[in-house]
């Protein structure tokens, strides 16, 4: 009986240690005018339009535009631990996979995809009502035909 109790204590300690060592992926700092987009290779200048994917191995992939991040996901279908974009209103990093998006040609972004992310769906609804465009869930957005929404496609050589 003593051995069983000792074994249970060891197992509990291992489980607790494993839980305390695992921390959720967090967005990395992007250095404006130093870091480059992993999709289009342009320098990242506008941090508010930037996005990032944290791969399963912890390596960050950086993007200058949400559209570039979508393009990368559609092209490479990467397995990732987390992905982040900026909330259009709060300017804070938010979870890409849980966001709601509005796309409109009036939304300025470095590569002219015109995609804005919202952490709160009601904020996206309100923005969409006031400014127009198309509203997307995460799942809808990653299936979108990017060429059909991009303004000035020839201008950027994408």
UniProtKB/TrEMBL annotation:
| Record's signal peptide | 1-25
| TM spans (from-to) | none
Q: Which organism is it from?
A: Cytobacillus eiseniae
PANTHER family hit by this protein: HTH-TYPE TRANSCRIPTIONAL REPRESSOR YCNK
Taxonomy, superkingdom: Bacteria
- Pfam hit, one: NosL
Which InterPro entries does the entry mention? N2O_reductase_NosL
What keywords sit in the KW lines?
Answer: Signal
UniProt protein name: Copper chaperone NosL
